[in-house]
Amino acid sequence: MASVSEDNLELQEIQKLEGHTDRVWGLAWNPTSGADGVPAVLASCSGDKTVKIWQKSPSTSSFHLKATIEETHTRTVRSCSWSPSGKLLATASFDATTAIWEQVGDDFECLATLEGHENEVKSVSWNASGSLLATCSRDKSIWIWEALPGNEFDCVSVLQGHTQDVKMVLWHPSEDILFSCSYDNTIKVWAEDGDSDDWHCVQTLKEANNGHSSTVWSISFNATGDKMVTSSDDLSIKVWGADIVRVQSGEGYAPWKHLCTLSGYHDRTVFSVHWSREGIISSGAADDAIRLFVENQDDLGDGPMYRLLSKKEKAHEQDVNCVQWGSKESGLLASSSDDCSVKIWKLGPRH
Amino acid sequence: MLKKLIYLILIEKMVVGLINANPVVYEKKERRPRTGPVVLEDEYAVESIDQLEIFDHIRDIKDPEHPYSLEDLKVITEDAIEVDDKRSYVRVTFTPTVEHCSMATVIGLCLRVKLMRSLPSRYKVDIRVAPGTHATEAAVNKQLNDKERVAAALENPNLVGMVDDCLAPSFE
């Protein structure tokens, strides 16, 4: 792939995946697929109450529908997430449950249903080792579940703190630190006190800390885990940084600080951001467009700044709800939309 | 949140009667007959035609509490509609009949659903209460413009039933 500092890159549409009969809310690439002879696998979840599994065919290099997971969730499936081993898929639904699935042959079997939230579950995330799962809901709480042998999941903590609907939860890529973002316009950071299952909020990023001024919809980390990007209904995306080496060395918690705000680029709510391993931030918004941002190489010494690399207008016919870079193949991006479709894109030189 | 509102409204109705028992009903505006296709010199003339079209979609929506339309009660007026057809954008500003109207979110939802069903899918719709006309204006506006909250609310059969009742006269 061409160097990220070159300005002549754009997204080229490779394929449009159709099949869902309602808006597609979320996407998740299977983390162990897409290299070493394992064909890339993508899960998509929808307002049609199903999850579809798409697999890339090695011979044709195009994606085909491998399986449809249906008849478990009774309402919209809002988000899905593969475990780090790639063996399990968690699905979060407006029916207030989270289901855990395992692939058995060509089918997916439901191993467990996690209940507890009072209303719609919005997001689910596995930690780096796959030992913990986090879910969040309109009931303002976040539940942390422990994955035990025999496909048992026990709730180890219920986190209260957000004053409104929690839109997304995401574990840090290497540490057991949990991040959440909400309709209350804040981002919260949660960590465990020793090993006591006593989880508490260690930091809140509010409007006053250069935070967002409206609902925060999405969070993503860079490859090294020392920066994160967030997107919001306030039409901006913000980059934050922390001295992660301090955390990794056990010197205690390192607070996150605002580094950069990218505003003036989006015309409507930014529903999703995702940071690629190569350092490209992609965003999906309600103006039907996908945008790519990279670090500005002309660093004036004020700290990292970011610039727009490329904009794909009318990437979809309606709102883009989710963007996700592929797990292994570089420059591969999937997007999902209210237009009921999923699109596969490849980053390449501009024609 | 919306489910809670419905329960509150039902309880309130049982205890104190209608929230706004004596709404002001305005004389209905005469409906302008639409003329055939017109050659337009002024591109802005296109917008005012579209404004009427939007108004036609929503004027007959029934108020959730009274047997009157949103037009009758001046909850919506033609002037309170902003349309930009080229950018596929519309914003509807509505005025609840009373400042503490707990029906504001229901009315807003009715407007959104009717426009969703009537306009091409390329349209972006913003709904808001007229500034200064509602006690919790920012909170109502935020809910009405949160796509995920609206989607979840529309999976609630009770709320959908209520919305459909309000929309029925507007489809005739």
TrEMBL record, chain A:
Q: Which Gene3D superfamilies match?
A: YVTN repeat-like/Quinoprotein amine dehydrogenase
The record ties this protein, via CDD domains, to: WD40
Which PROSITE patterns does this one have? WD_REPEATS_2, WD_REPEATS_REGION
Q: Which SMART domains match?
A: WD40
User: Would the keyword Acyltransferase turn up in this protein's UniProt record?
Assistant: no
Lineage top rank: taxon: Eukaryota
Tell me which Pfam families the record gives.
WD40
Protein name stated in the entry = Probable cytosolic iron-sulfur protein assembly protein CIAO1 homolog
**Native source organism of the sequence:** Daucus carota subsp. sativus (Carrot)
